[in-house]
Amino acid sequence: MKKIHHNNYDLVLKEAFSLFHNKSLDFLGLDLPPIVSFMETEIAEVETTDDMMDLNFLLQDGSILHLEEEVNLSVPDLIRFAHYDLRLYNRYKTMIHTLVLTPSDGFPGTKVLDTGNLQYSVLQIVFQDRDGDSLLEEIQSALGEGKPVNELEMIFLPLMKSTESAGTLLRKTIELEKNLPDETLRNKVRELTLILSNRIVDKKILDELWEELQMLKVIKYAEEKGMKKGIEKGIEKGIKKGIEKGLLRGKEEGIKEGKEEGTIEVAKNLLSLGIEDDLVMKATGLDQSIINKLKKSLALPSQ
Hints:
Strand order of the largest sheet: 1-2-3-4-7
Order of helices and strands: HEEEHEEEEHHHHHHHH
Distance between the termini: 40 Å
Protein backbone atom coordinates (compact mmCIF):
# COMPACT_ATOMS: atom_id res chain seq x y z
CA MET A 1 0.00 0.00 0.00
CA LYS A 2 1.55 3.32 -1.07
CA LYS A 3 1.71 6.73 0.55
CA ILE A 4 1.51 5.59 4.16
CA HIS A 5 4.14 7.51 6.05
CA HIS A 6 6.12 5.34 8.43
CA ASN A 7 6.86 8.24 10.76
CA ASN A 8 3.14 8.63 11.48
CA TYR A 9 1.65 5.18 11.14
CA ASP A 10 4.14 2.36 11.55
CA LEU A 11 4.18 2.56 15.35
CA VAL A 12 0.43 2.03 15.64
CA LEU A 13 -0.07 -0.69 13.03
CA LYS A 14 0.94 -3.70 15.08
CA GLU A 15 -1.41 -2.81 17.91
CA ALA A 16 -4.26 -1.32 15.88
CA PHE A 17 -4.51 -4.19 13.41
CA SER A 18 -5.11 -6.60 16.29
CA LEU A 19 -8.69 -5.36 15.87
CA PHE A 20 -8.91 -7.74 12.88
CA HIS A 21 -8.01 -10.79 14.96
CA ASN A 22 -10.61 -13.58 14.71
CA LYS A 23 -12.84 -11.38 12.53
CA SER A 24 -14.51 -12.13 9.20
CA LEU A 25 -14.65 -9.82 6.20
CA ASP A 26 -17.91 -11.32 4.95
CA PHE A 27 -19.59 -7.89 5.24
CA LEU A 28 -17.45 -6.95 2.23
CA GLY A 29 -18.88 -9.88 0.28
CA LEU A 30 -15.70 -11.93 0.57
CA ASP A 31 -15.82 -15.71 0.82
CA LEU A 32 -12.62 -16.09 2.84
CA PRO A 33 -11.81 -17.72 6.19
CA PRO A 34 -11.75 -15.44 9.26
CA ILE A 35 -8.58 -13.49 10.03
CA VAL A 36 -6.39 -14.98 12.75
CA SER A 37 -3.82 -12.22 13.10
CA PHE A 38 -1.94 -9.36 11.48
CA MET A 39 1.37 -10.57 10.05
CA GLU A 40 4.58 -8.61 10.48
CA THR A 41 6.19 -9.24 7.11
CA GLU A 42 8.93 -7.38 5.32
CA ILE A 43 10.14 -8.98 2.10
CA ALA A 44 13.74 -7.91 1.70
CA GLU A 45 13.96 -8.94 -1.96
CA VAL A 46 11.18 -6.51 -2.94
CA GLU A 47 12.18 -2.93 -3.62
CA THR A 48 10.43 -0.66 -1.14
CA THR A 49 10.28 3.04 -0.35
CA ASP A 50 9.63 4.96 2.84
CA ASP A 51 5.95 5.30 1.95
CA MET A 52 5.19 1.61 1.50
CA MET A 53 4.38 -1.05 4.05
CA ASP A 54 3.07 -4.59 4.09
CA LEU A 55 -0.53 -5.31 5.04
CA ASN A 56 -0.82 -9.06 5.37
CA PHE A 57 -3.11 -11.19 7.51
CA LEU A 58 -2.96 -14.86 8.45
CA LEU A 59 -6.29 -16.57 7.80
CA GLN A 60 -7.84 -19.44 9.72
CA ASP A 61 -6.98 -22.03 7.04
CA GLY A 62 -3.30 -21.03 7.02
CA SER A 63 -3.52 -18.93 3.86
CA ILE A 64 -2.56 -15.25 3.69
CA LEU A 65 -4.65 -12.19 2.86
CA HIS A 66 -2.54 -9.51 1.16
CA LEU A 67 -4.32 -6.13 1.27
CA GLU A 68 -3.70 -3.32 -1.23
CA GLU A 69 -5.44 -0.08 -2.11
CA GLU A 70 -5.53 1.38 -5.62
CA VAL A 71 -7.74 4.05 -7.17
CA ASN A 72 -7.13 2.82 -10.74
CA LEU A 73 -5.94 -0.78 -10.95
CA SER A 74 -3.46 -1.20 -13.81
CA VAL A 75 -1.15 -3.80 -15.35
CA PRO A 76 1.93 -2.26 -13.65
CA ASP A 77 0.08 -2.62 -10.33
CA LEU A 78 -0.57 -6.31 -11.04
CA ILE A 79 3.08 -6.86 -11.93
CA ARG A 80 4.12 -5.26 -8.65
CA PHE A 81 1.60 -7.31 -6.65
CA ALA A 82 2.61 -10.55 -8.41
CA HIS A 83 6.26 -9.82 -7.73
CA TYR A 84 5.49 -9.32 -4.06
CA ASP A 85 3.19 -12.37 -3.80
CA LEU A 86 5.80 -14.68 -5.31
CA ARG A 87 8.29 -13.58 -2.66
CA LEU A 88 5.62 -14.02 0.00
CA TYR A 89 4.83 -17.51 -1.28
CA ASN A 90 8.52 -18.40 -1.38
CA ARG A 91 8.77 -17.57 2.31
CA TYR A 92 5.57 -19.13 3.64
CA LYS A 93 4.65 -21.76 1.00
CA THR A 94 0.92 -21.16 1.41
CA MET A 95 -1.97 -19.81 -0.67
CA ILE A 96 -2.16 -16.02 -1.01
CA HIS A 97 -5.32 -13.99 -1.60
CA THR A 98 -4.54 -10.47 -2.81
CA LEU A 99 -7.41 -8.07 -2.20
CA VAL A 100 -7.40 -4.63 -3.82
CA LEU A 101 -9.60 -1.96 -2.25
CA THR A 102 -10.78 0.70 -4.71
CA PRO A 103 -12.62 3.77 -3.33
CA SER A 104 -15.90 4.96 -4.80
CA ASP A 105 -14.23 7.47 -7.13
CA GLY A 106 -11.95 4.79 -8.60
CA PHE A 107 -12.36 2.34 -11.47
CA PRO A 108 -12.29 -1.49 -11.65
CA GLY A 109 -9.31 -1.58 -14.01
CA THR A 110 -7.47 -4.82 -14.79
CA LYS A 111 -7.72 -7.75 -12.39
CA VAL A 112 -5.99 -10.47 -14.44
CA LEU A 113 -2.44 -10.68 -15.74
CA ASP A 114 -1.74 -13.38 -18.36
CA THR A 115 1.84 -13.75 -19.55
CA GLY A 116 1.24 -17.10 -21.27
CA ASN A 117 3.01 -19.36 -18.84
CA LEU A 118 1.91 -17.35 -15.82
CA GLN A 119 -1.64 -16.32 -14.93
CA TYR A 120 -2.10 -14.00 -11.97
CA SER A 121 -5.32 -12.48 -10.66
CA VAL A 122 -6.49 -10.43 -7.68
CA LEU A 123 -9.72 -9.91 -5.81
CA GLN A 124 -11.07 -6.39 -6.01
CA ILE A 125 -13.72 -4.47 -4.11
CA VAL A 126 -14.91 -1.24 -5.73
CA PHE A 127 -16.93 0.82 -3.27
CA GLN A 128 -18.99 2.64 -5.93
CA ASP A 129 -22.16 0.70 -5.04
CA ARG A 130 -21.84 1.00 -1.27
CA ASP A 131 -23.82 3.84 0.30
CA GLY A 132 -21.62 5.47 2.92
CA ASP A 133 -24.24 8.04 3.94
CA SER A 134 -26.84 5.38 4.76
CA LEU A 135 -24.32 3.27 6.65
CA LEU A 136 -23.23 6.33 8.65
CA GLU A 137 -26.84 6.94 9.70
CA GLU A 138 -27.40 3.27 10.57
CA ILE A 139 -24.32 3.11 12.79
CA GLN A 140 -25.14 6.45 14.41
CA SER A 141 -28.63 5.19 15.25
CA ALA A 142 -27.30 1.88 16.62
CA LEU A 143 -24.72 3.59 18.85
CA GLY A 144 -27.37 6.01 20.10
CA GLU A 145 -29.55 3.07 21.14
CA GLY A 146 -26.64 1.22 22.73
CA LYS A 147 -26.71 -1.55 20.13
CA PRO A 148 -23.56 -3.35 18.95
CA VAL A 149 -21.98 -2.30 15.65
CA ASN A 150 -19.42 -3.83 13.31
CA GLU A 151 -16.31 -1.77 14.00
CA LEU A 152 -14.53 -3.08 10.91
CA GLU A 153 -17.33 -1.77 8.73
CA MET A 154 -16.72 1.71 10.13
CA ILE A 155 -13.07 1.53 9.06
CA PHE A 156 -14.04 1.05 5.41
CA LEU A 157 -16.83 3.65 5.48
CA PRO A 158 -14.83 6.62 4.06
CA LEU A 159 -14.06 4.56 0.94
CA MET A 160 -17.77 4.31 0.12
CA LYS A 161 -20.00 6.44 -2.10
CA SER A 162 -21.28 9.64 -0.49
CA THR A 163 -22.88 12.97 -1.31
CA GLU A 164 -20.12 14.49 0.82
CA SER A 165 -16.50 14.97 -0.15
CA ALA A 166 -14.06 12.27 0.93
CA GLY A 167 -12.60 14.60 3.56
CA THR A 168 -16.00 15.47 5.02
CA LEU A 169 -17.08 11.82 5.11
CA LEU A 170 -13.83 10.93 6.88
CA ARG A 171 -14.34 13.67 9.48
CA LYS A 172 -17.92 12.50 10.11
CA THR A 173 -16.73 8.91 10.46
CA ILE A 174 -14.02 9.89 12.96
CA GLU A 175 -16.56 11.91 14.97
CA LEU A 176 -18.95 8.96 14.98
CA GLU A 177 -16.21 6.59 16.12
CA LYS A 178 -15.68 8.78 19.20
CA ASN A 179 -19.01 7.36 20.45
CA LEU A 180 -17.71 3.79 20.64
CA PRO A 181 -17.96 2.84 24.33
CA ASP A 182 -14.60 1.07 24.71
CA GLU A 183 -11.70 3.55 24.70
CA THR A 184 -9.02 1.10 23.52
CA LEU A 185 -11.26 -0.14 20.74
CA ARG A 186 -12.19 3.44 19.87
CA ASN A 187 -8.55 4.43 19.34
CA LYS A 188 -7.79 1.39 17.19
CA VAL A 189 -10.82 1.99 14.97
CA ARG A 190 -9.93 5.65 14.43
CA GLU A 191 -6.30 4.85 13.65
CA LEU A 192 -7.25 2.22 11.09
CA THR A 193 -9.86 4.50 9.52
CA LEU A 194 -7.17 7.12 8.93
CA ILE A 195 -4.77 4.53 7.53
CA LEU A 196 -7.28 3.14 5.02
CA SER A 197 -8.29 6.67 3.99
CA ASN A 198 -4.71 7.57 3.21
CA ARG A 199 -5.12 7.38 -0.58
CA ILE A 200 -8.39 9.30 -0.91
CA VAL A 201 -8.08 12.30 1.41
CA ASP A 202 -5.96 15.41 1.16
CA LYS A 203 -2.77 15.03 3.20
CA LYS A 204 -3.46 18.23 5.16
CA ILE A 205 -6.83 16.90 6.39
CA LEU A 206 -5.32 13.53 7.20
CA ASP A 207 -2.45 15.08 9.16
CA GLU A 208 -4.85 17.30 11.14
CA LEU A 209 -7.01 14.34 12.17
CA TRP A 210 -3.98 12.22 12.97
CA GLU A 211 -2.44 14.98 15.10
CA GLU A 212 -5.70 15.40 17.01
CA LEU A 213 -5.89 11.68 17.74
CA GLN A 214 -2.29 11.43 18.86
CA MET A 215 -2.67 14.59 21.00
CA LEU A 216 -5.51 12.98 22.94
CA LYS A 217 -3.37 9.91 23.56
CA VAL A 218 -0.39 12.03 24.64
CA ILE A 219 -2.51 14.02 27.08
CA LYS A 220 -4.03 10.86 28.55
CA TYR A 221 -0.57 9.30 28.94
CA ALA A 222 0.81 12.42 30.61
CA GLU A 223 -2.18 12.61 32.93
CA GLU A 224 -1.83 8.99 34.00
CA LYS A 225 1.92 9.19 34.57
CA GLY A 226 1.85 12.59 36.26
CA MET A 227 -1.13 11.92 38.55
CA LYS A 228 0.23 8.56 39.67
CA LYS A 229 3.62 10.05 40.47
CA GLY A 230 2.06 13.01 42.28
CA ILE A 231 -0.27 10.88 44.39
CA GLU A 232 2.61 8.59 45.38
CA LYS A 233 4.62 11.61 46.50
CA GLY A 234 1.64 13.04 48.36
CA ILE A 235 0.92 9.81 50.24
CA GLU A 236 4.55 9.61 51.24
CA LYS A 237 4.38 13.16 52.64
CA GLY A 238 1.03 12.38 54.22
CA ILE A 239 2.44 9.47 56.15
CA LYS A 240 5.12 11.75 57.55
CA LYS A 241 2.48 14.28 58.56
CA GLY A 242 0.42 11.48 60.01
CA ILE A 243 3.03 10.91 62.68
CA GLU A 244 2.25 14.39 63.97
CA LYS A 245 -1.46 14.80 63.16
CA GLY A 246 -2.79 11.28 63.17
CA LEU A 247 -2.30 8.72 60.40
CA LEU A 248 -5.77 8.96 58.78
CA ARG A 249 -5.86 12.74 58.60
CA GLY A 250 -2.27 12.86 57.42
CA LYS A 251 -2.92 10.39 54.63
CA GLU A 252 -6.02 12.30 53.47
CA GLU A 253 -4.07 15.54 53.36
CA GLY A 254 -1.29 13.74 51.54
CA ILE A 255 -3.60 12.41 48.85
CA LYS A 256 -5.06 15.89 48.32
CA GLU A 257 -1.61 17.39 48.10
CA GLY A 258 -0.59 14.50 45.85
CA LYS A 259 -3.35 15.29 43.36
CA GLU A 260 -2.16 18.87 43.21
CA GLU A 261 1.39 17.69 42.62
CA GLY A 262 0.02 15.26 40.05
CA THR A 263 -1.46 18.16 38.10
CA ILE A 264 1.92 19.88 38.14
CA GLU A 265 3.57 16.68 36.91
CA VAL A 266 1.01 16.44 34.10
CA ALA A 267 1.81 19.99 33.03
CA LYS A 268 5.56 19.36 33.17
CA ASN A 269 5.22 16.20 31.08
CA LEU A 270 3.15 17.97 28.44
CA LEU A 271 5.44 21.00 28.30
CA SER A 272 8.49 18.74 27.99
CA LEU A 273 6.81 17.06 25.01
CA GLY A 274 6.46 20.43 23.32
CA ILE A 275 2.69 20.74 23.76
CA GLU A 276 1.39 24.31 23.35
CA ASP A 277 0.53 26.34 26.45
CA ASP A 278 -3.18 26.56 25.60
CA LEU A 279 -3.53 22.79 25.43
CA VAL A 280 -1.59 22.32 28.66
CA MET A 281 -3.86 24.80 30.45
CA LYS A 282 -6.93 23.09 29.05
CA ALA A 283 -5.72 19.66 30.16
CA THR A 284 -4.65 20.72 33.68
CA GLY A 285 -6.71 23.77 34.64
CA LEU A 286 -3.56 25.72 35.47
CA ASP A 287 -3.28 29.39 34.47
CA GLN A 288 -0.64 30.99 32.29
CA SER A 289 1.39 32.36 35.18
CA ILE A 290 1.92 28.88 36.62
CA ILE A 291 2.70 27.49 33.17
CA ASN A 292 5.34 30.20 32.73
CA LYS A 293 6.93 29.31 36.09
CA LEU A 294 7.00 25.61 35.15
CA LYS A 295 8.58 26.38 31.79
CA LYS A 296 11.18 28.50 33.53
CA SER A 297 11.97 25.62 35.92
CA LEU A 298 12.30 23.31 32.91
CA ALA A 299 14.49 25.84 31.08
CA LEU A 300 11.92 26.05 28.26
CA PRO A 301 11.34 29.24 26.22
CA SER A 302 8.08 31.13 26.80
CA GLN A 303 5.59 31.39 23.94
